[in-house]
Amino acid sequence: MHNRVGRLANILKKKFGIVKGDRVLIYMPMIIESCWAMLACARIGATHSVVFGGFAAKELSNRIDDCHPKLVILASTGIEPGKHIKYAPIVDEALSLCKKCENAASMPRLIVQRKELDGKLLDTVSEHYHDMHTLLEEEQEVAIAESLPSAHPLYILYTSGTTGAPKGVVRD
Questions:
Q1: At what angle do helices 87-97 and 57-67 cross, to 10 degrees?
Q2: C-alpha angle 64/50/77, rounded to 5°?
């Protein structure tokens, strides 16, 4: 676990330029790579925001517009009883709907290709997508953990938005 998290943290730094204080949005189902992503962000001092994988593009775009991430980490698919939900088209649409987040359309996306799609990349995947497992195979160095004050922002958790716009609660 330490090795994978540390290598992923290095990928976030080297490949995507994520540094202490940056924000990363995680749009994934409950898979081990979600944990790796959260811990990798914490290791380098990036603030992560986990968005429930069942949210539609509009709700996802609201959260992107609010937190201004530098990177979106997602899975290729979510598994529901009797069907698969492709996440990449939802993320692409959400980024196209963003009104406040600069360069949303060209934002890099780190994707976990799940075996349930027979290893095939989705048709909508563009040059903005990078495969997490391929990058993990290539990266051998474990990132050194950043020294952070105890009150450093760890994550942003959004309210449901049922009474208006979702509100981001920043936790240290």
A1: 60
A2: 90
The range of the structural domain enclosing residue 145 comes to 2-171
Q: Which CATH number fits the domain that encloses residue 56?
A: 3.40.50.12780
Q: In the numeric block, which tokens belong to residue 89?
A: 């088209």
CA–CA distance, 94 with 59 (Å, rounded to integer): 8
* Structure tokens that stand for 28 in this block: 């994934």
Per-residue pLDDT of the chain (172 residues), as tens digits, is 999 999 999 999 999 999 999 999 999 999 999 999 999 999 999 999 999 887 899 999 999 999 999 999 999 989 888 888 899 999 999 999 999 987 898 999 999 988 776 555 555 556 789 999 999 999 999 999 999 999 999 999 998 777 778 889 999 9
- Please choose, from the candidates 164, 143, 118, the residue with its C-alpha nearest in 3D space to the C-alpha of residue 46: 143
**Based on the structure, what is the number of domains in the chain?**
1
* Inter-residue contact 6 to 142 (CB < 8 Å): yes
What's the rounded Cα separation, in Å, for the pair 129 and 125?
6
Per DSSP (E only), the strands in the chain are 23-27, 47-50, 71-75, 77-80, 83-86, 109-112, 129-131, 155-158, 168-171
